[in-house]
Design goal:
The protein is of the alpha+beta class and 137 residues long. It has a single domain, classed as 2,3-Dihydroxybiphenyl 1,2-Dioxygenase, domain 1, CATH 3.10.180.10. Helix content is 22%, strand content 44%. It contains 3 helices and 8 strands, in the order βαβββαβαβββ. The two termini are 22 Å apart. One of its GO terms (molecular function) is metal ion binding.
């Protein structure tokens, strides 16, 4: 199984305030912007592409969302690291055989066709890691 860095998710309080750094200092380009109101997600997302990386800025849509709780507990900053895999089902199966646990309630397909699931941070020494693949068009 190949694991390729797909993106880094950054928790922010306000996307518009945060965008200036990523666009003007890192010379990124705004690739996409959308809102996910799915239960357990509830974020505004800005996808910024730099020369060689993708960054997702994640702003909570309400004060009770998981992202709002994350910012309250840990502050702004890196929320998760996402790795693209060849096939999400196979990656989950292989990792599970090695004792990796997943946050099952996070498995979903996002608005842009990315299938994903988060690994339980207890299995990664505290880092929230997303595994993802993309639906073929």
């Amino acid at each position: 199984m190949n694991y390729v860095l797909d993106h880094v998710g950054i928790a922010v309080r306000n996307i518009d305030d945060a965008l200036s750094f990523y666009l003007n200092v890192l010379n990124g380009s705004l690739e996409d912007r959308y809102t996910s109101d799915a239960p357990g997600v509830e974020v505004h997302v800005a996808v910024v592409k730099t020369a060689d990386k993708v960054i997702e800025l994640l702003e909570p849509t309400n004060k009770n969302s998981p992202m709002a709780r994350f910012i309250k507990q840990r502050g702004k900053g890196v929320h998760h690291i996402a790795y693209r895999v060849d096939n999400l089902e196979i990656a989950i199966h292989e990792a599970s055989k090695n004792g990796i646990r997943f946050l099952e309630n996070t498995r979903r397909t996002n608005l842009r066709g990315r299938r994903l699931i988060y690994i339980n941070p207890a299995s990664t020494d505290g880092t929230l890691i997303e595994l993802c693949d993309y639906l073929k068009s």
